[in-house]
Structure prediction request, 137 residues.
Amino acid sequence: MASSRNRTNVPIQQLTTLQVFILGFNFPESRLVKSALQSFYGVGYQHTQRLMAKLYIHPTAKVGTLTDKQVLDLTAELSSMTIENDLRRNLQENIKRLRDMGTERGRRHAMGLPVRGQRTRTQTSTASKLNRLERYG
Prediction:
């Protein structure tokens, strides 16, 4: 057999795409840098725009077109930020601190109710969903 094939009868060598490794995640070369950066927890539109402007990356650039130096600079910038698990842990600790102090916000978090003064007669389903997420001690 010359080459193995998959269900779609396309040689497997053609299906593999090159990946770019940024801060522990592999991104396909065809992905936009903007969307790749926004996939990190804690990096939104504003942070992405600032990072790309700081590193002179075009807004429509793909991950595969980045130079090695740009990838290293991007990784260094992201590692200096509080993102992913560190940010999640920080959020958990803040909520736990509020609960331990016995504040109104802490009690509302513990009960799964809206925290910031929203109405509770109706429309509490969103707050109940959000406050249920791993926020119980």
Remarks:
- The beta strands are 19-22, 25-28.
- Residues 85-101 form the longest helix (17 residues).
- DSSP finds seven helices and two strands in the chain.
- The first strand starts at residue 19 and ends at 22.
